[in-house]
Design goal:
Blueprint (H helix, E strand, L loop, with lengths): L1 H24 L3 H16 L4 H12 L2 E9 L5 E9 L2 E8 L3
Antiparallel strand pairs: 1-2, 2-3
Length: 98
């Protein structure tokens, strides 16, 4: 009886240890896509995220909240820049290509 309880507890422990590994293996594919887009754009474009933020701030004003590199359906790289101005959030696109 003691062996059965020991084996049962051991199996429960192992299943608990395996779950985080399984969860980690199911990484969000969107993260991989974002990394791939960033890598391709970094190789092909000449506009940095800092330049995109500076351009957006100069053109629209406000405080830059975030800068994300994206690709359009046609494959063109652009930065999605989120700005905060007078309590309003504005999202603009800045081309990643000069």
């Amino acid at each position: 009886m003691k062996q059965f309880i020991f084996i049962f507890v051991a199996l429960l422990g192992l299943s608990g240890l395996l779950q985080p590994a399984q969860a980690r293996s199911q990484v969000d594919t969107q993260s991989y896509r974002n990394v791939a887009v960033m890598r391709v754009a970094a190789e092909s474009s000449t506009v940095s995220p800092q330049e995109a933020a500076r351009k957006a701030k100069a053109r629209y004003g406000g405080k830059v909240l975030s800068v994300d590199l994206k690709r359009s359906k046609e494959g063109a790289a652009y930065y999605r820049v989120k700005l905060l101005s007078e309590g309003n959030v504005r999202v603009v696109r800045i081309s990643a290509e000069k």
